[in-house]
């Protein structure tokens, strides 16, 4: 390619590059810079505050902050239960759809995708009201079966949020897995059937291995989202501030440190830590899931 | 390869190859249908409940069966939503449309240009730019939003529409999609031919590339629109005053009022929530051809 032409092509990307520098690199650099300082009130607190260099002090504090590390652990444990469950259901539904004629499958797919159309905040509002003992239908339904469940109690709040996220996520994940299933060469099934394999066996030995890539991808996206979970607990906190504390998830702590405690430096350090944790978690997940195929 | 092409290829084979259903196959078919129907009920009943709830007044909401209609109060609920605090709900709706519409339109144009540049020109640093695009998927939102808030407040942008619009202009995921679409739809030969005919690079982009990328561009726009419409953390951080809020923020605020000041806005919140789904549903249904390919494209590539 002619030299001048190459540069002309680069010009098309210049606006994005500028934007990326100002909206991504600069803020991140600024966060790292801020995380290395600490504001101290000078004198008796009358002369305002001055920023003093703290080195890695904020990070040390973050790593030993039981509220922060506790929230990370809470979210990780929750992710270990909710994500596999959600992906399992999505996979099962995708396999069901794949076994039907494309017209019937299309009809079910539309219905299963309805939750994906609903904004996350609205989905949370709807479920919070469904859970509500005053207006929701689930409490009277439980009574019919002799269950006296309180969806906002400390032991139920994670299952309640988990159900909300699963409801919201299965349609989307199912579509991704289903479209990967559509790519499996159909001749393979015929060959397997001629060899006497059952449909279940075909699903287990041909279809599931074939959609591994899609499962890894959806798993990765879910992990990234889950570690940053904020909206749902924030809305639950509106209803049950006693159960959902303001340090329930990592991002809630960061938000509160920045905007309620006014401690930007510490909030910046925590968000850098969270980014590192996210990177490590994604890397580990990727290694764990790709090892078997090597 | 797009999803539709794949399906077109796969389905005739499948139809021919499917053996005549015997009794056992029919039995398992029924089993699948029952499973899928249960899943559909699970997916749909909350939406059904919301629709029913929006037609009830407070007594109906608290005392009648939630899954079926009682007295019809939809119109008075709607009136209440649109007149509460001098029609602030309409203001929020307009804001949501402004941020999602204008922000996504600008962001889509910028992404198409960037995707075209990345896909069809081999300039030094191209791989670095692409690495930035993909790497940014891993950055937690708090790491960007908090410093962005501080920087915006230094230049006086906090609590103005710009604080929402500017971040929407630069969307790495849109760029990624635009690059993939360019690779799939714009052949090198066509660009060569246009150059030989003496067309300038800008002319080629505007009158050939953009025109051929309508489908890809629509998908990018749709996904960006949905993302911005659903955004919560960014508006919560950078928008302080009620008059600049989005629908999501407004509904969040209404749903929290009971805890703060003891006012029960439940039926207001539910009717507002139902209303806020409508634009999204219309958008997705009208453009379902596009977003299906967009949703799955991210997975296939």
Automatic annotation (TrEMBL), chain A:
Residue stretches making up the ABC transmembrane type-1 domain: 72-285
Transmembrane segments: 12-33, 75-100, 112-131, 157-181, 210-230, 264-286
Stored InterPro entries: MetI-like (IPR000515), MetI-like_sf (IPR035906), UgpAE/MalFG_permease (IPR050809)
Taxonomic path: Bacteria, Bacillati, Actinomycetota, Actinomycetes, Kitasatosporales
GO cellular component: plasma membrane
Organism: Streptomyces fuscichromogenes
PROSITE patterns: ABC_TM1 (PS50928)
Compartments, record wording: Cell membrane
Annotated membrane topology: Multi-pass membrane protein
Protein family membership: Belongs to the binding-protein-dependent transport system permease family.
Recorded superkingdom: Bacteria
Protein name: Sugar ABC transporter permease
Pfam families reported for this sequence: BPD_transp_1
Keywords on record: Cell membrane, Membrane, Transmembrane, Transmembrane helix, Transport
GO BP terms: transmembrane transport
Keyword Membrane applies: yes
From TrEMBL, chain B:
InterPro entries in the record: MetI-like, MetI-like_sf
GO biological process annotation, one example: transmembrane transport
Gene3D superfamilies xref list: MetI-like
One cellular-component annotation, GO: plasma membrane
Pfam families: BPD_transp_1
Membrane topology: Multi-pass membrane protein
Highest taxon of the lineage: Bacteria
Localisation per UniProt entry: Cell membrane
PROSITE patterns: ABC_TM1 (PS50928)
Transmembrane segments: 31-51, 97-116, 128-150, 162-181, 202-226, 265-286
Ranges where the ABC transmembrane type-1 domain occurs: 93-286
Keywords: Cell membrane, Membrane, Transmembrane, Transmembrane helix, Transport
Location of region: Disordered: 1-21
Record family assignment: Belongs to the binding-protein-dependent transport system permease family.
Annotated protein name in UniProt: ABC transporter permease
Organism: Streptomyces fuscichromogenes
